[in-house]
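Dear colleagues,

I hope this message finds you well. In preparation for our joint manuscript, I am sending the Aminotransferase-like plant mobile domain-containing protein (Linum tenue) sequence together with its predicted structure, so that both groups work from identical material. I would be grateful if you could confirm receipt.
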Amino acid sequence: GQWCTRVPLICFGTVEWHLPDRCLRQFGREQCIPLEVPESQRAFHGRDGRQGTRDWPTKLKEFITIWENRQLHDIVTPNQVGRMGYHDPYLDRYRQTSVRYMTPEGAADGALGDGIERIKDMTTGRTELGNEDVSFIR
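The corresponding structure tokens are as follows:
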């Protein structure tokens, strides 16, 4: 459906991006790593259209073209089946780039879960054991 189309929403001089690839799991879809909005396309985010030019079709031609070809910008992922694995590419990226915990208790629980997953990786041969890993296990 159109809810799953990654397009700019345009209102006079304001352009806001509809970015469904950032919340696919909420709709029962497999979560992919979201694409970044190109720097050139951030220029009109939150602009106030009351001043300056009123020639929006010319000024926003790039965004209008994307909107007119919106069927080319559908985010297509399969339905999510079961839980995401600990090493799902999205979760690996999320752990590297996001603030994961809001409370000390949440951080403690997360650190425990991460430690268990790390030990599991070491014991199943997913990662090679080094001196640091052996110390971690002890």
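For the figure legend, we might mention the following. Strands lie at 7-11, 14-18. The longest helix spans residues 104-123.

With kind regards,
E.M.
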